[in-house]
Amino acid sequence: MTNKLIEFVVLDAEQNPLLNAEGWPTLKQAPIAKDIGQLVDMGKVTHIDKFAALQSESEQYLWAAEYLNYLKEVKAVELENAELEPVTGEDGELIEPTPKPLPDEPVRPEVKTIEQVLEPYGHKIAKLRGITFKGLDISLTETNQNGLSALKSALELATEFGADDQFFPIKFNAETCEGNKVLVLDDESEFKQFGLDFVLARKAFFE
Fold first, then answer.
1. How far is Cα 105 from Cα 207, in angstroms, rounded to an integer?
2. Residue closest to 49 by CA, chosen among 130, 114, 128, 144
3. Which residues contact 13 (CB under 8 A, 6 or more apart)?
4. What is the pLDDT of residue 1?
5. What confidence tens digit (pLDDT) does each residue in 67-122 have?
6. How far apart are CA 16 and CA 191, in angstroms?
7. What pLDDT does 111 receive?
8. How big is the CA angle at 147 (ends 143 and 151), to the nearest 5 degrees?
9. Which of 44, 101, 148, 183 could pair with 172 in a Cys bridge, judged by C-beta atoms 3.0 to 4.6 Å apart?
């Protein structure tokens, strides 16, 4: 039954399972996984695919540890049952002892894809990743929307007083999944294109 664990077991130079003092195989070090939900809540989704893959892998290692414990429990129960002996009842008849039942074998979970791991957080991740403009992933947040509105009002005011030629380039302090980044908008055309892309993406996100 240890064959089910072979991919998780440390092998010696001859490719045989490395056994400990009790004769049980030594499991490989499990990958260190991070809480995907916590990462998303913190806005750290830049490398979320990598962490999703680690979580999927760690679930398999968790099963391997459970399965090894299961094998140990089976062995212990079998030894305990082997030592059971009939007892003599009050009427002199031999009473066969009831053996202890074996534990249930843990079922190995299916290997999850990155998409399956991230599915519960897809909406939040999409909002954080937002749209890509000039190489930056601009999050679809209310803060960014308010910032765009403020710039639009400022541009209208500058135009009203004939100072629109002094307005650009402007630096838009944007929220991204990597923290705040500066998006440089060189002219009115670029500003309008960015605003349109952002508004349409945010509208589609909330529909």
1. 46
2. 114
3. none
4. 59
5. 999 999 999 999 999 999 888 877 778 888 899 999 999 999 999 999 999 999 99
6. 64
7. 97
8. 170
9. 183
